[in-house]
Specification:
The structure holds 2 protein chains of 2 kinds. Chain A is built from 14 helices and 2 strands, in the order ααααββαααααααααα. Chain A is mainly α. A two-stranded antiparallel sheet of chain A has the order 1-2. In chain A, a hairpin with a 4-residue loop joins β1 and β2 (about 100-105). By secondary structure, chain B is α+β, with helices and mostly antiparallel strands. Chain B has 2 domains: about 85-155, no CATH class; about 170-380, MetI-like fold (Orthogonal Bundle). Chain B has a 3-stranded antiparallel sheet with strand order 3-4-5, with no helix packed on it. Chain B is flat. The chains are: A mainly alpha, B alpha+beta. The interface of A and B includes residues 20, 25, 271, 275 and 321 of A.
Chain lengths: ~350, ~375
Amino acid sequence: MGVFVFILRRLATMTLTLLLVSALIFFIINLPPGDYLSNQIAELRSTGQESGVAKAEFLRQEYALDRSLPEQYLIWLGVWPGPHGFSGILQGDFGWSFEFNKPVWEVVGSAMWMTILVNLAAVLFVYAMALPLGVLAAAKSRTWIDYLSSFVGYLGLATPNFLLALILFYYGNKYFDLPIGGLMAAEFEGQPMSIDKIKSILLHLIVPTFVIGTAGAAAMMQRLRANMLDELNKPYVTTAWAKGVPPVKLLTKYPLRVAFNPFVADIGNLIPSLISGSVLVSVVLGLQTIGPALLSALKSQDQFLAGFILLFVAMLTLIGTIVSDLLLLMLDPRIRFDARKR
Amino acid sequence: MSIQSDGRYVDPAPYSPDDQGARIDHPEFDAPGWVLIWRRFKKHKLGLISGVFLFLSYLMLPFMGFIAPYTAKERDADHLYAPPQSISFMHEGKFIGPHVYKTTAIADLENFRWTYEQDTSEPAHLSFFCHGSEYRLFGLFKSTRHLFCAPEGATVFLFGSDRLGRDVFSRILYGAQLSLTVGLIGICVSFVLGITFGSLAGYFGGRIDWTIQRLIEVLRSLPELPLWLALSAAVPSHWGPVSVFFIISFILGLLDWPGLARAVRAKFLSLREEDYVQAAEMMGAKPSRIITRHMLPNFSSHLIASAMLSIPAMILGETALSFLGLGLRAPAVSWGVMLNDAQNLAAIEIYPWTAIPMIPIILVVLAFNFLGDGLRDSLDPYQT
């Protein structure tokens, strides 16, 4: 029963956190004076297009932008009756994107899946890179493998993501004929899923995944290496060596399993930074994730779009953290989250 | 050694108490803490080099106008997108001192770009301590003296020039003034918030602790960049560069403190039970005095090390924000603003030198990382 109670409790905390986050986000978005529509109305007035003003005024009332801020927040959240059927996020109405002039859901619907895909790929990449390299660097510590991997890791940590993206794109295209920009070839956009489309997406994912994941992978690798080194110095490892256990088995049987714990637990810290990175890289590389939409929405004060995307990003992080906790629970029988007795 | 009448042995050498005291078995246990830290830190070669590098970089900040051959806003309309020039010493096999060659722009109407032709027949000597355009030393005194400037009729674009014909090298030096200090201000904000909240939570515990803990959890679970973006989008566009600079560094620090607060809290929880804290409490010291006088000095060195490790994140953050056009804006010069020019693939392909500002960024970020690592390793002098 422990696990289910644990999951339930975590979900409850997550809901509470999301509520707090939504208030925070709403507050931040409304920090700049004015909103998209009042800016637009002012612009229309000054250029003398009275017909457009009426429409903007209508939208303003429709989405309750003329009310007080707390009221706006409650309406946006969906716990307060909005005017004319704008029912708020909790009831599945994410609002209207004034900039794109269509519902928020239509703007970001497909981009959300792409965001999840890119981040999932990045997480997998981080593990696929950090695990073997970290173990190898620890097993062959103070050899060129160790030095090379930490050098590359440090470099990845220090290079600004967006530049790494540009440079890799340039050279990837020049020498390996990798596609430039976007998440799929142009002819597949709007097409139903097919083998070719998946292939195209995978090919386009290579550089972004690498760029987003490098910094995280470097940090993780260093940590795994340190943990492994601690473990490898223990007497039981020496005993195993003396008894002639083959190296691979010796490494993976116990030391790796012990060193692996913090590695999984770290996913909670990893995911926020990965998502940060993916937003930035998406903007630079023009990936069809929520990154570019977020940037333009923030710049033009398109508040429902920006608010929804920020909330979505926060939710993605929180779910990722819960998943990591569950993985940890399955991996290590010593960890029990419920009933901590003192 | 002489034998006394009662059979005792006595050393005839004069007795000096100082002599005896100085001979301790382990002199290293008796040195003050900072000496021990320094001794260990010296062994961390990379950290040492990084420390010296950073020290010099910050030391140079007020003199950047003097070192740079041009000012940040000086335009050379005849040399747009000029490639990097090298300073040579030998001309036709003879040593004639540092000089450059004149370049002239040729419009390549086929590819619509500028190409430059070097005229190697006539060397143009660099002049030193010469008069150039006006800048302010320390931001106060007007001066026109530069370490070196371009010879008459020629240019000295060490790292090339950008799309408006401004010298990339000079702009990197000027940009350092903002890019390097943004992290410092950010870390100050983060420190004040982190230490205040962390020590409150750790010292008082109970309900305060619970509230602050939840706050930390919420902030830590959020991705930084989107929040940074949202906050900087809220900066009014009519503000001047100076206020934008301060508000951006404030924003960078605003989201960084939770990690620090957590560390401070954990430390306080354990220190709270120490005897000397209890003694101070018994003697009636106020919480504020106990926190600032007795507890904080105990791990100030740890705080410094962790500061070193979080400054790079802020420098990268500033770069990212400015790069996206939401951080510092155009009249201000920072490395991120400069990289804004290198935003597209065409720039990387045709004018790769516009991306040169990434080199100082990488160097500084690496240096802070190494310095922080070195400090962290050497902070526990009694540990072997």
